[in-house]
Specification:
The chain contains 28 helices and 7 strands. A hairpin with a 3-residue loop joins strand 6 and strand 7.
Length: 637
């Protein structure tokens, strides 16, 4: 009896302390599932044994699982190809430039001069590395690995951290059903994972953005300044964080009827300082303006044909490529609602932020790595705001103390509802697992043609492509004479070949690369001439290539620019000096010579098989027609 009274009094004391704490706390200061500032973690307030049995410990296990699972998935996808993934060669440019930066800095020199695109706005006098911090972050991988492997491992690390940072925000604010939301992140869109595997800066953009959002939510505004400063040095999408600050300021203005200037001041200050205190100032501002003018337009009205990633998705492509992300958006829109005249701060932030990213999908596919994961966050925080119950929950210590004295008898309807809820969660989890496998493997049956990430990435161009051609270009002949003199310029017929050529051959410069706008912005007339030459519309292109572009050799992919090659050879100005099944190198003669013919490529086994089948079909049809002609005419009745 004494023990019973003692426990009741102890429980009343705990409850009294808890109620006093609730009276002192402004309900608008925290959100569902967030601990009040200054409270100790549960591990500090209880013993480790109790902590390991707590929900916090379970959530920590989920976070570790998310880290391990993300790393395994990104590693598995990255190594489906031996090349630096994916879709284009840009990763080769990034890792080679990181290597050149390290060679220069480690030798006690300043930043190296970029001499490989002198005809463009990235010439040595104007060059700006708008991925500067990203390139510095790639350097440690080069200390231990050869460049291709360094780029691939770096891509896995950065992509894994980006995915986990998205999940960490859910972990930090204790959103219910964390594994379901992690499953949604891992299935949000194939294009998201495809682009996360590229050895580029966008994963860091996600990390910086998540960090900035967290600082906004926690009202730790002063840290936004160094964060924005680093963001400016990392990638040209840094205005995204300033937009986030604007959204947050607007939400606070509505809820608290005051103008909170600090988010704008610190992000704006970091943006200004990051651009001014910059090793490439003022050329960084020039290149940012060039990007803004050429890319920030409505529709597909580019003055220059650019990479496919800059063109928009159609409505049908959005539905078929982003079903989980769009479903998350729908859930978020349905569940979002003000309460007691106040906006749910986090849910409202993501509503506006992700709606902007969704709209950007209709402008450019470049936002495919940003919209899907943030759409999941929108749904998760809208769910949290919707399901938040405005009741006082007893602290865990109090519940444990009084549990033996409570008759916790649930009604039949409560038991039934709990069973339905658990069944739905397990079913949804199973659906997400199956859909994840379909995304990885693909599905080509029952009228569905859904390509898997594994086969898509495996189908990328091999790492070996162009290596033989560039080995010849940088090599010497039997007399020890350079095949192409060091410092010469190569007329690369396609701008998107430049990153791989630059990676394999830094002895020579090139006509254009990374973005065709870089040449167009510097000299529109020269760019137009280049497009006419590469399309085979110029008969005597040899002298123009030599005089206008300063090049004496032309590099062409073996599968492209047949009309241009034919024109160069037929005109007598060009001769093929190197050729394999991947590339051709044509030398521009000093004087017009005897025309040469473009040799037909040898017939492949597949082409031979198809031709043989076609011949057999033609023979079979001919024999059938002959038999019909030989038949006697039918007698008339």
């Amino acid at each position: 009896m004494i023990t019973f009274l003692f426990n009741i009094l102890r429980a009343r004391g705990l409850l009294h302390g808890f109620l006093l704490q609730m009276e002192e706390q402004n309900p608008n200061d925290t959100f569902a599932g967030e601990p009040a500032e200054g409270t100790l973690p549960e591990a500090a307030r209880t013993g480790w044994r109790e902590y390991l049995e707590s929900e916090d410990a379970t959530r920590m296990v989920y976070l570790v699982f998310a880290l391990a699972a993300s790393a395994m998935v990104m590693s598995f996808l990255q190594f489906r190809t031996d090349a630096i993934c994916c879709g284009d060669w840009d990763g080769y440019y990034h890792i080679r430039w990181s290597q050149l930066l390290w060679e220069s800095l480690s030798a006690g020199k300043w930043l190296p001069s970029f001499d490989w695109l002198p005809l463009t706005v990235l010439g040595p006098e104007q060059y700006n590395d708008h991925h500067f911090l990203f390139h510095l972050l790639q350097i440690p991988f080069l200390w231990f690995l050869e460049p291709v492997m360094a780029a691939k491992i770096g891509a896995v690390v950065f992509a894994t951290l980006a995915i986990v940072s998205v999940y960490w925000l859910l972990h930090r604010y204790k959103v219910d059903y964390p594994l379901i939301w992690f499953g949604a992140i891992m299935t949000c869109a194939n294009m998201f994972f495809y682009r996360m595997n590229m050895a580029k800066a966008p994963p860091l953009t996600i990390i910086f953005t998540i960090a900035g959002i967290y600082l906004l939510f926690e009202r730790k505004y002063v840290w936004l300044l160094p964060l924005m400063f680093a963001f400016v040095w990392t990638y040209s999408l840094f205005p995204l964080l300033f937009i986030a600050a604007m959204i947050w300021v607007a939400i606070l203005a509505f809820n608290e009827r005051r103008f909170e200037w600090r988010p704008l001041a610190y992000t704006g200050g970091g943006m200004i300082l990051g651009n001014i205190i910059n090793p490439y100032f003022p050329h960084n501002l020039t290149l940012f303006y060039e990007h803004f003018v050429t890319k920030f337009k409505v529709g597909s009205d580019f003055a220059v044909a650019v990479g496919g990633e800059w063109y928009p998705y159609t409505g049908m492509e959005l539905i078929t490529h982003f079903p989980v992300a769009l479903a998350a958006m729908l859930i978020g829109y349905v569940l979002w609602a003000p309460r007691n005249g106040k906006l749910p701060e986090k849910a409202t932030f993501f509503l506006v932020f992700v709606t902007i990213l969704l709209a950007a999908q209709f402008r450019s596919k470049r936002f495919a790595e940003y919209f899907p994961p943030f759409a999941i966050l929108f749904a998760a925080f809208s769910w949290q705001a919707f399901s938040f119950k405005q009741v006082v929950e007893l602290p865990s210590e109090f519940r444990r103390d009084i549990e033996p004295y409570l008759d916790a008898v649930r009604t039949r309807s409560e038991v039934l509802w709990d069973g339905i809820r658990k069944g739905f969660v397990w079913t949804l989890g199973a659906v997400l697992v199956i859909y994840f496998l379909v995304n990885m493997i693909g599905l080509q049956s029952i009228g569905i043609d859904h390509g898997g990430l594994m086969s898509t990435i495996k189908g990328n161009e091999a790492d070996e492509r162009y290596r033989r051609a560039m080995a010849w270009a940088t090599g010497v002949d039997e007399n020890g004479k350079e095949n192409i003199p060091a410092g010469d310029r190569i007329f690369n017929a396609n701008w998107d070949d430049f990153p791989k050529l630059f990676f394999l051959n830094t002895k020579h410069s090139y006509v254009y690369g990374l973005d065709p706008n870089y040449l167009y912005s510097k000299d529109a007339e020269l760019y137009i001439l280049l497009t006419e030459i590469t399309a085979g519309k110029v008969e005597d292109a040899g002298p123009m290539i030599r005089e206008r572009f300063g090049a004496r050799h032309v590099f062409v992919d073996a599968r492209e620019n047949e009309a241009m090659i034919a024109q160069l050879l037929d005109s007598g100005w060009g001769e093929i000096v190197y050729e394999d099944d991947e590339a051709r190198i044509i030398r521009i003669r000093e004087e017009k010579g005897v025309p040469t013919e473009l040799e037909d490529e040898p017939e492949t086994e597949e082409e031979k098989r198809l031709l043989d089948e076609e011949e057999r079909k033609l023979e079979a049809n001919a024999n059938a027609n002959a038999e019909i002609e030989d038949e006697p005419p039918a007698k008339a009745n």
